[in-house]
Amino acid sequence: MVTARAPILKPVPIAELRPTQITVGMREVEERRRRWRALKSGKAAFLGRHMIPVVLGPKDRHYIVDHHHLARALHDEGVEEVLVLVTANLSMVEQDAFWIVLDDRNWMHPFDSEGKRRAYRDIPKSVDKLVDDPFRSLAGDLRRAGGYSKETAPYSEFLWADYLRRKMKRKHVINDYADALRRALRLAKGHDASYLPGWCGPAAED
Hints:
This protein has two domains: about 5-130, Conserved hypothetical protein from pyrococcus furiosus pfu- 392566-001, ParB domain, CATH 3.90.1530.10; about 135-190, Ubiquitin-associated (UBA) domain (Helicase, Ruva Protein, domain 3, Orthogonal Bundle), CATH 1.10.8.10. It has eight helices and six strands. It has a four-stranded mixed β-sheet with strand order 1-5-3-4. It is an alpha/beta fold. About 40% of the residues lie in helices and about 15% in strands.
C-alpha cells in the first residue's frame, strides 16, 4: 500500500534508521559534514528542508531509500534525530518478503565496495556501519564536474561507480584522487560509457 508522501512530524532517531545499501562514498559524507558545520544558524530549518525518504517496514522500522550520505553525515556530526518522508508503507509485509519487494521495486542496492552483489543480510542495520566505496565518491564528483547529467533513475551513480571500478585501480583513486577524477572525465566522454544513465559524450556523426 503506497501512502501519500507526507512527512512524519515526530522526529526519528538516526540510530534507528535502516540502510538499504551497503556502501557510501565517504568523501561525499565528509563534504556534507563540512556543509553542516558551516551552518552558523538555521540548522533546524535545514533538517526541515532535507527530510530522509524512507519505506516503513516490518515492526514499523524506517528503511532509508535515499540520502544515505546525508544520514551518515548527520550521525557523524552528532545529530540524534531527523524528520523522515514516508514514501511507502510495507509494515504489513513479512521480513523475508520485504527485502524481495524492495529489490523488485529497485529500492535497495545490496552491492559491496568491490561491486559484488551480496545477500540481503549483509546490508548494515544502522547508518554508522555503512562501508566506504571510493568509486562512489568518484562517481559523485564526476557528475558535479560535468561528466554526466543528473538522472532520476535509481542508483545511477552506483552504475557509474561500477563502470569506473572496471576501468581504474582502487589504489589510484585513493592515492591520487585529483588525477583519478581527470581520468574519469575522459572516460565519461567515451563511447564505452554511452549505455550509462546521464551520458553526455560527443554525439556520433552521421
